[in-house]
Structures are given as structure tokens and as C-alpha cells.
Write a structure and sequence with these properties.
The chain is built from 8 helices and 10 strands. It is of the alpha/beta class and 249 residues long. The longest helix has 18 residues. Bound molecules: adenosine-5'-triphosphate (ATP) and magnesium ion (MG).
Length: 249
């Protein structure tokens, strides 16, 4: 029997903040190379679920397996090693404004190479600078390597954030509303670029979006959170925009 590799498995996970429940009994498995859209209304718990899956915050119940490691109990070196194998793209790019674009991309290697040499491109080993330049080429911004990060447009900044996320060759990418801060045209460009890269590199990706068309276009599969539960887990091909809008009921 051929069993495809599972990169992320949530086993009946629950999260509460203090007394306030966010979600409970959420279970799913994501296979290697899958692109999954996580949808749901504001406050449904999408960002919280992503953080739990990455091991950034603890779950209140259940178990998260990420790349074969129990993420919710990993600590110290094991957790750092695990985090170095995943990448994150957020709604806000969080670039360091006064540093060069290249330095910001080099920062994406800090998970694997902690230490001062990866704080700035001028200190970074040649192999790291080359990797960062190659990531910038992939997002079409090699010519901007020496520009200060605060002299970029929103769309360019987000592409630099994508370069920073892919420079360490992550096995899994988490993207929390990767184009929400962009105008529709720049947002389309960023989504096209992001998914071209993840498909080329065979990366598993889980992304959140409020854009129903993006979820269906870029996701192979859709997970929907509503009312503190996983209300939807279906292939994108089996759904239409109306099915998704119902989640926002
Ligand atoms: N650090 C925190 N402490 C307490 N409550 C929190 C915290 N972070 C989020 N929450 C609450 O948990 C719930 C889920 O929030 P979360 O940010 O995960 O939702 P979301 O689906 O990502 O929403 P949005 O679409 O607006 O980004 C919300 O009610 C929120 O107020
Ligand atoms: Mg959110």
C-alpha cells in the first residue's frame, strides 16, 4: 500500500484563551505538496490555528504532528530545529525598515543559522548571500537587493517577505492572509508568484484568506472554521463560492 507522506496532522486539537474557547475537536491531515486554504469569518480562529500548528502557541487539548514531530510538546533545540524547517508569510511583511532588502532575506536563514553573521548581508557568509540573491531572483527583485526595505512598495515588500520565507528551503509554508494588505492587482501578483514557487518546489502550504476566489483558485483543499469547529473539509474542485460564503453566515 502506498501511503503519501503527511506533513501536518491535527488530532482533535482545542484552543482556549483563558476561559474563552476558540475552537475544539479539530482534526485533519495534510499530505506533502498539498495547498490548503483555511477560511472563516473574522475571529473564527484561523490565525490561532496556524500558530498552534507551527508550535508557536500551545494547544489546550489534542496533538499536532508537524513533519513527523509532535509540535505541541517540542521544546528547546527540537523546537528550534522544527521551526527552521517551516516558513511563515504574514499579512504584514515585518521587514526591518532600515536594513537592505538582501539583509532582510538573509534573516530568513536565522532559524537554521542563528547568530550575528545572519543579522546583516555584509556579515553573512557567501553561501548565505548567494541563497538570498537566488530567492530574490525567484521573486523578481534581484535588482533591489541593496535598496533599503522602507523604500519599497507594499507589493514589493510582500515579495521580499516571500523571499525571506523561502530562502531556507522550508518543507512547509504557513501564510496568514498573504495579500490582505495589498491592492487587488498587487494581491493577485503576489498570490500567483507565491503559488508558482510553492508548486515548483513541492512545498506543503496552508494559507488563510478572506478572498473566496483565492481560496478556491489556489487551494487544492479547503478547511473552514465556524462556531468553534471545523465545519468544512473538502476539495476545492467539489465546492463553489456560495458554499464558502455560507461559512460566513
Ligand atoms: N492572544 C490572544 N489572547 C486572547 N484572545 C485572543 C488572542 N488572540 C486571538 N484571540 C481571540 O481568539 C479568537 C480567534 O482569533 P484569531 O485571530 O485566530 O481569528 P482569525 O480567524 O484569524 O480572525 P481574522 O480573520 O480577523 O484574522 C478571537 O475571538 C480573538 O479575539
Ligand atoms: Mg487572522
Amino acid at each position: 500500500m502506498v501511503v503519501s507522506a503527511v506533513d501536518i496532522e491535527a488530532r482533535s486539537i482545542a484552543k482556549t484563551y483563558g476561559e474563552t474557547p476558540v475552537f475544539a475537536d479539530v482534526s485533519f491531515r495534510l499530505a506533502r505538496g498539498e495547498a490548503v486554504a483555511l477560511v472563516g469569518a473574522n475571529g473564527a480562529g484561523k490565525s490561532t490555528l496556524l500558530r498552534c500548528l507551527m508550535g508557536l502557541i500551545p494547544v489546550s487539548d489534542g496533538q499536532v504532528n508537524l513533519l513527523g514531530v509532535v509540535a505541541n510538546t517540542a521544546k528547546g533545540r527540537a523546537l528550534r530545529t522544527l521551526r527552521a524547517r517551516v516558513g511563515l508569510v504574514s499579512q504584514k511583511h515585518n521587514l526591518v525598515p532600515r536594513l537592505s532588502v538582501l539583509s532582510n532575506v538573509v534573516h530568513g536563514l536565522l532559524g537554521k543559522e542563528p547568530g550575528i553573521r545572519h543579522w546583516n548581508h555584509a556579515l553573512a557568509p557567501k553561501a548565505s548571500r548567494d541563497a538570498a540573491m537566488s530567492a530574490l531572483e525567484k521573486v523578481g527583485l534581484a535588482d533591489y537587493a541593496m535598496r533599503r526595505a522602507d523604500r519599497l512598495s507594499g507589493g514589493q515588500s510582500q515579495r521580499v517577505a516571500i523571499a525571506r520565507a523561502i530562502v531556507s528551503a522550508p518543507e512547509v509554508l504557513f501564510a496568514d492572509e498573504p495579500c490582505a494588505s495589498l491592492d487587488p492587482s498587487a494581491g493577485e501578483d503576489v498570490m500567483d508568484l507565491f503559488f508558482r514557487l510553492v508548486k515548483d518546489e513541492g512545498v506543503t502550504v496552508i494559507f488563510t484568506s478572506h478572498n473566496v476566489d483565492h481560496a478556491l483558485r489556489y487551494g487544492d483543499r479547503i478547511l473552514g472554521l465556524a462556531g468553534g469547529a471545523l465545519k468544512l473539509d473538502a476539495t476545492a474542485a467539489s465546492l463553489n463560492p456560495t458554499d464558502l460564503r455560507e461559512l460566513y453566515g
